[in-house]
Amino acid sequence: MPLVLHITPRNVWATSAPGGYYQPSSLASDGFIHCSTVKQTVDTANQFYAGQSDLVLLCIDPDKAEAEVKYDAPAGAGDQRADSLFPHIYGPLNVSAVLEVVEFAPRSDGRFELPAAISRVAAIVGD
User: Is pTM beyond 0.85 here?
Assistant: First the structure.
């Protein structure tokens, strides 16, 4: 399976990583962890995180995830990307499936672009 990315505040990741499993609030509220493909990530970031700083991208190898990874329609009603399928992780994410954590800062206009490091990480999974 190709690389999937998850956007999260640095402090949320930092508090989860030492326990060996990442469990953001969406796991309890929605039943899964929201992720995006490499191609979907910038649109996701600009729609939901514009102007936010102190974010990181978790680069996840879905083949190493212990929880099931499924591709579903967007979870939010009225999502502009309703014709796309997004990767969702249906359970806690084992930290060992995270290949790299990449800084994800917005440009000065508050919008995002994909960090150069993502291409290198995607090549590891054969994306």
Answer: yes
